[in-house]
C-alpha cells in the first residue's frame, strides 16, 4: 500500500501525496484533465523549483499529478510535504510569465490528411477548421509519450474528436494532430492514433543541436497558417541551423 499524506491546496483542490520509490513522491490532484488543475500543477512545480530547497531535484508535471524527485539523504519526506503544503497555500494566478511560441503550420492536403474529415465532423470548411485551430493560444500541460511530445490544451470544443479507430503505423515528425481536448506536434516519426491536420518544419526535438525539447510545461503556443512555399523555405533554414525563439507574452 502506498504511504499517503493529504495536503491543503488552493481553490478547493485536495491533492494527496504518495511515495513513488525511495526518492520521489507523486502528488495527485484527481483523475483526468481540467484547466484549473493543470494550472495549479504547473504553478506548484514552478514554486518548488524556485524554492532552493536543499535536496529537491526536479518536478515532473502530468495532466493531473506532479512527480517530485528528491534526495532522501538530504531532504526528509516530512520537510518535502511541508514545502508542498507551502507551495499549495499560495493563491493561484501569480506564476511567472510563460514563454510564447508561434509554430508555423501547413494545414490540410498531404500535410494534414485528416483535416477534411475533422472539418466534416465539425460542419466547417477545411479553411474554417484550420482557422479555428489556429485561433487559440494553447498551454503545454505536460510532456509525454515521446521525447518532446507536448500535450497542448485546450482544443476548441467544435474540433474535439476521439482518437482514430485505427492508429497509423507511422506518423511523420512535425505532424500537427488533435484528439479529445488536446493538440500536439509529433517530435519524431512514430506510430500514432491522433487526427493529422497539418505539418510544421520546426523540430520539437533535435538532439544534434540541443539537449532539451523545444517546448516545456507552462509554455504558451500559437499556430500560424503558412503555405507549402514558406514551409519549404523554413525547412531549408532549419537544415542550415535555424531554430525559432520564444516571444514575450502580451
UniProtKB/TrEMBL annotation:
InterPro entries: CT_C_D (IPR003833), Cyclophilin-like_dom_sf (IPR029000), PxpB (IPR010016). Keywords: ATP-binding, Hydrolase, Nucleotide-binding. Residues 15-215 form the Carboxyltransferase domain. Gene3D superfamilies: 3.30.1360.40, Cyclophilin-like (2.40.100.10). GO terms for molecular function: ATP binding; hydrolase activity. NCBIfam families: 5-oxoprolinase subunit PxpB. This is Allophanate hydrolase subunit 1.
Amino acid at each position: 500500500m502506498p504511504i499517503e499524506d493529504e495536503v491543503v491546496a488552493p481553490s478547493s483542490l485536495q491533492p494527496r501525496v504518495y511515495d513513488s520509490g525511495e526518492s520521489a513522491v507523486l502528488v495527485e490532484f484527481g483523475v483526468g484533465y481540467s484547466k484549473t488543475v493543470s494550472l495549479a500543477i504547473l504553478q506548484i512545480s514552478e514554486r518548488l523549483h524556485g524554492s532552493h530547497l536543499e535536496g529537491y531535484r526536479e518536478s515532473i508535471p502530468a495532466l493531473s499529478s506532479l512527480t517530485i524527485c528528491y534526495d532522501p539523504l538530504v531532504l526528509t519526506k516530512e520537510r518535502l510535504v511541508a514545502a508542498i503544503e507551502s507551495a499549495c497555500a499560495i493563491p493561484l494566478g501569480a506564476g511567472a510569465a510563460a514563454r510564447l511560441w508561434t509554430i508555423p503550420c501547413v494545414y490540410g492536403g498531404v500535410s494534414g490528411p485528416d483535416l477534411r474529415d475533422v472539418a466534416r465532423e465539425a460542419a466547417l470548411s477545411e479553411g474554417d477548421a484550420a482557422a479555428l485551430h489556429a485561433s487559440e493560444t494553447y498551454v503545454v500541460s505536460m510532456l509525454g509519450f515521446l521525447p518532446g511530445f507536448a500535450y497542448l490544451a485546450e482544443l476548441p470544443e467544435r474540433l474535439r474528436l476521439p482518437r482514430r479507430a485505427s492508429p497509423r503505423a507511422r506518423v511523420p515528425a512535425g505532424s500537427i494532430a488533435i484528439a479529445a481536448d488536446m493538440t500536439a506536434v509529433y517530435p519524431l516519426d512514430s506510430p500514432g492514433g491522433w487526427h493529422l491536420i497539418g505539418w510544421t518544419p520546426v523540430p520539437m526535438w533535435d538532439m544534434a543541436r540541443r539537449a532539451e525539447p523545444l517546448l516545456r510545461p507552462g509554455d504558451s503556443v500559437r499556430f500560424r497558417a503558412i503555405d507549402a512555399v514558406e514551409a519549404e523555405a523554413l525547412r531549408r533554414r532549419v537544415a542550415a541551423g535555424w531554430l525559432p525563439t520564444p516571444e514575450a507574452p502580451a
